Amino acid sequence: MDTEVLVVGAGPTGMTLANELLTAGVPTVLVDRLARRSELSKAGGVQSRTLEALDQRGLLEPLLATGDHPVTTGHFAGIPLPLRSNGPRLPWRSVPQVVIEGFFERHLAEHGLYARRGHELSGLAQDHDGVTATFADGSTLRARYLVAADGAHSIVRSLLRAAFPGQPGTLTIVAADVRLSGDDRVGSHTWSEDGHWAALFPLGTDAQGRPLRRLVIGGPGRSLPREIPVTEDEIRDSLATVFGTGVRLLELRYARRITNASRQAERYRHGRVFLAGDAAHVHLPLGAQGMNTGMQDAFNLGWKLGAAVHGWAPEHLLDTYHAERHPAGAAVLRNVRAQSLLMDWTGTRDPDVLAAREVFTGLAQLPDVQRHLADLMSGTAVRYPMPGTGDHPLVGRPAPDLDLGPTRVHELLRSGRGILLDLPDAPSGLPHPSHPSDPSDLSDLSDASAKIVDPWSDRVDQVALMRSGSGSGSGSGSGSEPMLIRPDGYVCWAGRDGLEAALGHWFGEPRRAGRR
Q: I need a labelling partner for 473 at 20 to 30 A (CA). Which of 55, 104, 143, 398 fits?
């Protein structure tokens, strides 16, 4: 093998996966067909669940230090959606995709991992032991596993002839990175009386500190073939149609036409090849859900590939990637299609659509509806199916980021290992520590608990403590009881019984006596 894992595509999904593999201690090669990193921000927001996952790896604070803006109001189908102040500990942030890619590129380079650019894949073949990738220059690379993170027009997916069913694009809209004047009074979505519309989102600032915006425009007669270049005159005309003379174009940085195609790979795993990000699912880029869903694909897959490479993965573990992430991707496609319908992208002003939108706008004022939609858009509503590991309310959800006195749960996860967290103040089948002298001190697990977990101690950390704070996070339930947490931060067991079975199910065969 030239490497253990070959990641094709150095966008947010590919770089996130490369970092997960780095955390897991897995030799990785990252390639991309582009000679240099793109300067186009296809997304501009980071959802709560992605922020939590970055925090689990110690990357959140360094990323936000590059400059960001808290997002207090989102939207669903263009309808304003307050993001709850009493919701997740980490509310949405406006961080452009180009900033995220640049941050990951520097971070990976600091750890000796550099994207090999100008490497266009032209062929692949897999056998019982690995995958052989062939590139356009005739070179080859042999890896144990290959992950396609190479975008909506994935070469890997094409070479696999993987089924990619869904709805083809029926129209295009324009997305552009711009500098504008007079945009301080503009809301996220604005319609003109004749059905033309524009949406504006913050994209941080340029090198001179001037605000940048993501502009999305559409309406009657504006659905043009994708190959027709977007011109400054087209942007100016759209701005004038929607805003009159109040908003002017100062600079057009990048622009492209995007379609409303909605497709999802039938299978995310093809032997030793896995699809992730836009290679696995495409849809209109609403709420930055494409980028965030792809990054969550990577967080889910990375530790499982690490387990397989290191030889302790249960036989079924790699299959759980599809079982968990395919439903999550399907849910995103559903809400995007619903939003597309309600937004009336073509500007037809269909009376039935307008009536449905009016009713939905009223519903969106209800706190429970706002909470549901915010969770849906923030990635915090995902609950992974985990058959065979109990039906406790915490299982399948992100672990609450409990304040444990000297540390937090997210900080414990930075090792990239599993965690058995025993909170002795809860009723439990696990014995409590015998010396809880200080309610905020970490202490050893009791002998009985340690004996259960010890055969997995090469891959699961044991933490016992008395909890002094209530903590917070996106998981449901108080979290005040024993939990087994996977390396990606999801609870895979909680409660009273079945710990040993859960350890075997998620962390493989126990270590044989005398082997560390």
A: 104
- Tokens 């604005």 belong to 190
Q: Per-residue pLDDT averaged across 31-37, rounded?
A: 93
Beta strands in 63-153 (DSSP E): 69-70, 73-76, 79-82, 93-94, 116-117, 121-126, 131-135, 140-148
For residue 507, the 8-state DSSP code is H
Residue 469: pLDDT over 50: no
Please name the residues in contact with 206: beta carbons below 8 A apart, sequence gap of 6 or more. Answer: 179, 212
> How far apart (Å, rounded) are the C-alpha atoms in residues 499 and 394?
14
CA–CA dist 428, 420 (Å, integer): 13
- Return residue ranges of the chain for CATH 3.30.70.2450: 172-259
3-state secondary structure of 34: coil
In this structure, CATH architecture of domain 172-259: 2-Layer Sandwich (3.30)
**DSSP state for residue 262 in the 8-state scheme:** E
pLDDT of residue 186: 62
The residue to which tokens 């669940």 are assigned? 49
Helix (H, G, I), strand (E, B) or coil at 368: helix
Delimit the CATH 3.50.50.60 region(s) of the chain: 3-69+92-167+263-343
Distance of CA 105 to the CA centre of its chain: 17
Tokens 């409590």 appear where? 432
CATH topology of domain 409-507: Glutaredoxin (3.40.30)
**How is residue 314 written in tokens?**
């249960």
Residues 82 and 66: their CA atoms lie apart, in Å, by 25
Instruction: Please tell me the least confidently modeled range out of 299-308, 310-319, 479-488.
Output: 479-488
What six digits make up the tokens of 107? 């971070």
pLDDT at 381: 87
Q: What phi and psi values does residue 81 have, to the nearest 5 degrees?
A: -130, 105
Residue whose structure tokens are 């000679």: 35
Residue 447 has pLDDT above 80, yes or no: no
Q: Is 332 helix (H, G, I), strand (E, B) or coil?
A: helix
CATH architecture of 3-69+92-167+263-343: 3-Layer(bba) Sandwich (3.50)
Is there a contact between 132 and 141 (Cβ–Cβ < 8 Å)? yes
Provide the residue type at 138 as one letter: G
pTM above threshold 0.85? yes
Residue 439: is its pLDDT beyond 70? no
Query: In the numeric block, which tokens belong to residue 320?
Result: 């759980």
